[in-house]
Amino acid sequence: MIYKIFPAILFVLVSFSLSKTSFSEPKNAKPVVYAKTLESSVETKIEMVYNNLHSNKFTLPKLESFAVALKGYYLLKEKGLIKKDILTLVDFSLSSNTKRLWVIDLITGDVLFHSLVAHGRNTGEEFASNFSNSAESYKSSLGFYATGEIYNGKHGMSLKLDGLEKGVNDNARARGVVMHAAEYVSNSFIKNNHRLGRSQGCPAVPVELSKEIISAIKNKSCFFIYHPSRVSKLAAASIS
Q1: How far apart, in Å, do the first and last CA atoms of the chain sit?
Q2: How far are the Cα atoms of 36, 122, 172 from residue 160, in angstroms, in the given order?
Q3: Per-residue pLDDT tens digits for 174-233
């Protein structure tokens, strides 16, 4: 009888041992950690770019206006509407008596120019507040542009601008809204008139800087005119 019972007991003991081996965890086992790549947010990227700008003794633009400009630049570059890594930012929230145009090399982080810039005569006195996309409005248009080709006009060396936002600035070329030099964009004009001179809607710049700025930003670079009264659809778009 014992010969029949013993194999049964042995089978139970072996089964229990195997079961314990199968389900018990090794004492030194560690949980598996899977690597996960976390993409930084657009805002973090923008702050990183902003904090690494080389001002070259120039005052930097406000982060608020720079962030909007950079978001639009990323999207336009992705779409192939601009080709160069140069960003021109005009901040029309600022007094026309202050330098409110910046040209920034986004590869090196260098601020290449910081300059006075005019707004349209019907856009406002010292401060810009009224904007239009209509011909003969003598108002400035906000939003994103792609810079075009150089030509010689009544103001000498000038630069065509193509508005990229429908209904906002897409009539720029037809209206003749260009960058050009103007004698009324100067500290002496401000001193004599208590404000900068105004254009017919063009972002006019000082005579002494015009050729250098135009040469630096020509041919498909990003040009952006900012005002807090308007949220650009381009800058509000989702950018990866």
Answers
A1: 79
A2: 47, 21, 9
A3: 999 999 999 999 999 999 999 999 999 999 999 999 999 999 999 999 999 999 999 887
**Taking the model in full, what pTM does it have?**
0.81
Q: What is the DSSP string of 141-180?
A: --EEEEEEEEEEETTEEEEEEEE-STTTTTTHHHHT-EE-
Going by DSSP bridges, is the β-strand pair 205-206/181-182 parallel, antiparallel, or unpaired? Answer: parallel
Q: Return the percent helix, strand and coil in the chain, to nearest 5.
A: 30, 20, 45
Q: Are strands 143-153 and 222-226 parallel, antiparallel or unpaired?
A: antiparallel
Q: Which amino acid is residue 56, in one-letter code?
A: N
Spatial separation of the C-alpha atoms in residues 184 and 197, rounded to whole Å: 5
Is 88 in contact with 65 (CB distance < 8 Å)?
Answer: no
Max intra-chain CA distance, the chain? 124
Tokens of 45: 């990227």
Helix axes 63-79, 42-51, angle to 10 degrees: 110
